[in-house]
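hey so i finally got around to running the thing on that chain from the lab meeting. sorry it took forever, my laptop kept dying and i had to restart like 3 times. anyway pasting the input first so we r on the same page abt which one it is
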Amino acid sequence: MSERRLHHADSAAFRHAMRSLSSGVAIVACGDGESRAGCTVTALTSLSLTPPTLIVCLARTSSTLAGFRQAGAFSVNLLSARHEALAQRFSGRGGLHGARRFDGADWTTLATGAPILCDAVAAFDCLIEEVIERHSHAIVLGAVVSLIEGADEPALAHWRGEFSASR
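ok and heres what got predicted. didnt touch it at all, straight out
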């Protein structure tokens, strides 16, 4: 049997093609006080219902990932269409970093102490189960220890580089 050589597709073409996949938008956050960190993510999915477990993918260079590792816990806050400005802020647009990104929104905590957006569509409070580093990103497995369900409103979606209300 001949040995196969792995050849990856062109990264730019891959990125462009993946823009066709619509996804939900969330803010992941960790820490407390001035050590809070967070970012906007679209690479998020459930792994298991039993036990409840989420997967979040973050760049290995992300300061939020460093905060996750330090805190050992994080939140996942699903955003509604009215949270577009907050999604922009946590994506880094506007130049705010660290705890300053949390200004202007109401936050609380649940079991782990991670920041929970009070008016999120839903929010999950997670303990880090495992961090798997692959290529440019880390795959974070979060054991959901508590959650809140918010208002029944259209979720914020991301498609072709833009935010919009899901239908």
